[in-house]
Amino acid sequence: MSDFAERWARAGTGELCWLGASGPTGAAVIPLSREGRPCVALPLSRLAEADDLTGRRVAFCVPGRLGQEGAPAPGVVAVGPVRVEHDLEGARYVEHLLHQEMVKYPPTRLRADSLLSRRENWWWVARVIVTIDGTPEIRELPPRRDERDALLVREADAEARTPRVDVVSAEDWAVGPGGELALAADEGRPPGAGEPAFAFGHHHSPDYERWERWHRAGPLVGNRLRVEHAAGAPAASVRPFGILGRFQGHRTLARECRAGVAELERRLGVSC
Q1: φ, ψ for residue 27, nearest 5 deg
Q2: pLDDT tens by residue, 5-20
Q3: How confident is the model over 223-244, as pLDDT tens digits?
Q4: Measured in whole angstroms, how far is the alpha carbon of residue 87 from the centre of its chain?
Q5: Quick check: 106 and 112 in contact, CB under 8 A?
Q6: By three-state DSSP, how is residue 103 classified?
Q7: Nearest CA to 163 among 27, 11, 60?
Q8: How many helices (H) and strands (E) does the chain have?
Q9: pTM score, two decimals?
Q10: Phi first, then psi: what are they for 90, rounded to 5°?
Q11: Pairing mode, strands 14-20 and 23-29
């Protein structure tokens, strides 16, 4: 796993994909590494996602991109079980992961770059750490060339509840529920047999304060996705918040993180 672990540690952004309680899904994350093993540290605003990951096989995806001279660089995906740790005090996060996240994710520099800021934003350092456990299955993925490329998540092994992840593209993702999407054919991608599938992408502003995900979900038959659920749309760029939007976003995030902290305290029977 050493090559994948190195790719994951170098990546600025990545994705987790899994077969959740409501079907296949995926989310954008900041790739981190703990003792040489790929991991992520989810704030407690994402406690529900962490709950859904517990006990499952999860795909850690590193996107492939076009190189500086236009040469495509493949992506890579590693699929395996995960260990989910609740770090309510943020001690493990601060000791092992905070410095990595500050390099990659500017909002963390604003909220936790000093002891004083960590005390003020205590809700931000409380985390759930999700780490690949054991030896994952690793394979390459095609590079994502522009915003029309997305990740497609579906079940690969019903008995093991293992997700399969592929890179897919469509000429126009602007199809809502009741419509049908024709995905570009790929000889290396098994055709769908009517199983639930989830196609998604994400985009963020240059300062990472706005990070939006879009998706299309429904049964996959051959190379056609019958859309039952849809949200958002691909975008070439995302504008940063203005001053008011940034203030409102910070307040909303703080409220959601505090709610996650309170829920975790309730489960653990503790009070900080």
Answers
A1: -150, 150
A2: 999 999 999 999 999 9
A3: 999 999 999 999 878 888 888 9
A4: 19
A5: no
A6: helix
A7: 60
A8: 8, 15
A9: 0.93
A10: 80, 15
A11: antiparallel
